[in-house]
Amino acid sequence: MSSELKKIERAARFLQRRLKISPTIGLVLGSGLSEALGRLEREQRFLWEQIPHFPRPTVMGHAGEWVFGMLEKKSVLISRGRVHFYEGYSMSEIAFPIRVMKLLGIERVILTNAAGAINKDFSVGDFVLIRDHINTIPDNPLRGENISELGPRFPNLLDAYSVRLRALAKEAARDMGLELKEGVYVATPGPMYETPAEIEAYKRWGADVVGMSTVPEVIAARHCGLEVLAISVVTNMAAGIGSDKLTHEEVLEITKRREGDLAKLLRAIVAKM
Question: According to the annotation, is 213 in a ligand binding site?
Fold first, then answer.
């Protein structure tokens, strides 16, 4: 057994000994979205610093807490925040929470993030369902020794973003009268925002939105057999697309403004799972 798997198992055991529920759905709330879902029924909270081997977020808008409970009569785990490659964390550390989710019995994950719009048909405040991704981060969670207990050496990412879950999300949005766009997400290493030339290149590659997270989690989740749904909140027009200079504070302001509608959408999706 690899030393990494031992760490994952130790973290999972720590939680299992204390949990009152067995979660089957995981939700990761991105920049500024940590409080989107409010309180849960039968709620239990654990700061990441309490859980063995967990990384600690260093970025404003990422609380670093796991919340367990019942949402729409489903047992869920909500991750309030995440860690990023640009914070200096290794890919193993970024993937660690997802892998612990797997050992806790979670089968499906919903990932959310803040993103810049490359597609000019998108607007600030839009919700975008990710149907595929392009990865420019110069590392990934599967490089190095394979943890065969979690998944295969060469996983297939043809269906990285579940067609079934995307259909559920579209149905939930229609029921709410909410417009849900769809597109390709390009992941960059950060922390600097992209140049106009880079955005022009990504546009030619077929990317619709750009951000600094999510893809490492998707790779880790698919490797260990989790079904994935991912939603971006457009917080700005990407460099060269809009005229405004980008700041993290503005990103948090937009996510806070859209938090209520995102919470309604996530609840509706979970109810259909």
Answer: yes
Q: What is the dihedral of CA 57, 61, 65, 69, to 10 degrees?
A: -150
Q: What is the pLDDT of residue 32?
A: 62
Instruction: Tell me the pLDDT tens digit for each residue of 83-129.
Output: 999 999 999 999 999 999 999 999 999 999 999 999 999 999 999 99
Q: Does 133 carry a binding-site annotation?
A: no
Q: pLDDT grade, residue 251 (50/70/90)?
A: confident
Domains and CATH numbers, the chain: 3-272 (3.40.50.1580)
Strand 65-71 with 41-47, pairing: antiparallel
Which of 4, 87, 227, 259 is the catalytic position? 87
Calculate the dihedral angle through the C-alpha atoms of 24, 86, 204, 132, rounding to the nearest 10 degrees. Answer: -10
Q: Which residues contact 246 (CB under 8 A, 6 or more apart)?
A: 116, 193, 236, 239
Rounded to whole angstroms, how far apart are CA atoms 36 and 64? 14
Query: Once rounded to an integer, what is the mean pLDDT over residues 191-200?
Result: 96
Rounded Cα–Cα distance for residues 134 and 139 (Å): 13
**CA–CA dist 29, 113 (Å, integer):** 7
Q: Are 146 and 91 in contact (CB under 8 A)?
A: no
Catalytic-role residue among 201, 248, 250, 271: 248
Q: Per the annotation, does 31 bind a ligand?
A: yes
